[in-house]
């Protein structure tokens, strides 16, 4: 049998299984984790706004454009994050992806103001 390598992301797990020397922080794994967290912080609000926006019966073409811009912006942002592309690639991709969110939020607010 070969040697079993131990590596734990959490100190409490490493302590329970041999000591802190087995606690590892891999920079590439941490970058992936941050990229994933960033995606979740942006995608979930977009899904909420998109669902409400869709209930306003928008033009299907305009809605598709909103959704396409967001998706392309987030994909470019994630690729820029993971591949460490030069600034301002990631910032521009983030800003482009936020445009449809602001547009949808504004349209939701305008549609609901008569009911205030």
Automatic annotation (TrEMBL):
<keyword id="KW-0812">Transmembrane</keyword>
<keyword id="KW-0275">Fatty acid biosynthesis</keyword>
<dbReference type="Pfam" id="PF01124">
    <property type="entry name" value="MAPEG"/>
</dbReference>
<keyword id="KW-0644">Prostaglandin metabolism</keyword>
<keyword id="KW-0963">Cytoplasm</keyword>
<feature type="transmembrane region" description="Helical">
    <location>
        <begin position="92"/>
        <end position="110"/>
    </location>
</feature>
<protein>
    <recommendedName>
        <fullName>Prostaglandin E synthase</fullName>
        <ecNumber>2.5.1.18</ecNumber>
        <ecNumber>5.3.99.3</ecNumber>
    </recommendedName>
</protein>
<dbReference type="InterPro" id="IPR001129">
    <property type="entry name" value="Membr-assoc_MAPEG"/>
</dbReference>
<comment type="similarity">
    <text>Belongs to the MAPEG family.</text>
</comment>
<keyword id="KW-0560">Oxidoreductase</keyword>
<keyword id="KW-0472">Membrane</keyword>
<keyword id="KW-1133">Transmembrane helix</keyword>
<keyword id="KW-0643">Prostaglandin biosynthesis</keyword>
<keyword id="KW-0808">Transferase</keyword>
<keyword id="KW-0444">Lipid biosynthesis</keyword>
<dbReference type="InterPro" id="IPR040162">
    <property type="entry name" value="MGST1-like"/>
</dbReference>
<keyword id="KW-0276">Fatty acid metabolism</keyword>
<keyword id="KW-0443">Lipid metabolism</keyword>
<comment type="pathway">
    <text>Lipid metabolism; prostaglandin biosynthesis.</text>
</comment>
<feature type="transmembrane region" description="Helical">
    <location>
        <begin position="62"/>
        <end position="83"/>
    </location>
</feature>
<comment type="function">
    <text>Terminal enzyme of the cyclooxygenase (COX)-2-mediated prostaglandin E2 (PGE2) biosynthetic pathway. Catalyzes the glutathione-dependent oxidoreduction of prostaglandin endoperoxide H2 (PGH2) to prostaglandin E2 (PGE2) in response to inflammatory stimuli. Plays a key role in inflammation response, fever and pain. Also catalyzes the oxidoreduction of endocannabinoids into prostaglandin glycerol esters and PGG2 into 15-hydroperoxy-PGE2.</text>
</comment>
<dbReference type="InterPro" id="IPR023352">
    <property type="entry name" value="MAPEG-like_dom_sf"/>
</dbReference>
<keyword id="KW-0413">Isomerase</keyword>
């Amino acid at each position: 049998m070969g040697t079993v390598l131990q590596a734990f992301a959490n100190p409490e797990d490493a302590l329970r299984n041999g000591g802190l020397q087995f606690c590892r922080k891999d920079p590439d794994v941490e970058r992936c984790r941050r990229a994933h967290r960033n995606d979740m912080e942006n995608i979930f609000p977009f899904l909420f706004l998109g669902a409400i926006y869709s209930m306003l019966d928008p033009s299907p073409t305009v809605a598709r454009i909103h959704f396409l811009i967001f998706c392309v912006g987030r994909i470019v942002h994630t690729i820029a994050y993971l591949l460490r592309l030069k600034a301002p690639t990631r910032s521009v991709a983030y800003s482009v992806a936020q445009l449809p969110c602001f547009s949808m939020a504004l349209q939701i607010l305008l549609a609901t103001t008569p009911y205030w």
